[in-house]
Amino acid sequence: MPFDQDLDQLLADIAEVAAPRASEGEVATYIPSLEDVPEDTFGLAVVELDGTEHVTGEADVPFPIQSISKVFSLVHAMQKADAGEGVAKELWERVGREPSGDPFNSLVQLEHERGIPRNPMINAGALVVDDILLSRCADPIRETKELLEKLCGEELGVDETVLRREGTRGHRNLAMAYLMSSFGNLENDPHDVLDVYGHQCAVQMTARQLARAVRFLANGGVEPASGERIVSAELARRVNAVMLTTGTYDNAGEFAFNVGFPCKSGVAGGIVGVVTGELGVCVWSPPLDPTGNSLAGRVALHELSERLGLSLF
Ligand code: GLN
User: Fold this and answer.
1) Between 304 and 40, where is the model more confident?
2) CATH numeric code, 7-65+204-308
3) Would you say the CB of residue 42 lies under 6 angstroms from ligand 1?
4) Is residue 173 lining ligand 1, measured as CB closer than 6 Å?
5) Sorting pLDDT into bands at 50, 70 and 90, what band is 1?
6) Which residue of 13, 20, 116, 201 is most buried, as measured by CB atoms within 10 A?
């Protein structure tokens, strides 16, 4: 164990400090499966590169991964680049890599910036990544889910209610897709792109599974359990850079300041973290702060970083 502390005890101590903060946040109202989850639900999982797993609380309860999926769809597109299909150049011509400073579902910059989203971690950017996957993959929905299953070593389900809601209440995402189409930055029908996006958001995973699934990013692009290279070290480094600067939207500066390692959040209250050379991390607590990040999750990651000295800075 690389740490001279009892990590199981440490996680339990962190839960005690972080979980009560959930009462200050708001649960996303459009995710029906969260209605049955007590608001004080809290799970934290830390998986070492050697496979040792540490968890506390509800780390084995599945939840829709929502925007955490944006990391994996980007990786999926990067895999195509690694395979020499020229995707990386196309991708970075069509999506930026700057923080947006705006909410994840904001439309305002798209008009000024001629349909080029600021980064792939906001909704508009993820839609362009999905458009690329739709053009390049035989079955992008199945392939992205299979990537997640490979990375966590288990079969995964889909939250069908979330899937239906993504379709019926996705007006804002559809508006973004049409706006980008009008600037020539989508190749496929906006509804088809939204379908790929909705499926990736609705995949259900536990905190433990997600902590396992991000470990390849802490390990130079190689999945540590199997030794399989998922992406090149260069691309893994760049995914981490994008996560650090944009993965928690207009709170990314705050995360860099207090947590100091790459993170990606989802609106169901999950946040994954990558500690290079050491750990995959995932925390889950549904109530969100005004920027759409899990409130208790942010506190827990701050505590974890402080107590183990994990900040890059
Ligand atoms: N499905 C959500 C949406 O598109 C994902 C956003 C998120 O998790 N932040 O609004």
Assistant:
1) 304
2) 3.40.710.10
3) no
4) yes
5) very low
6) 201
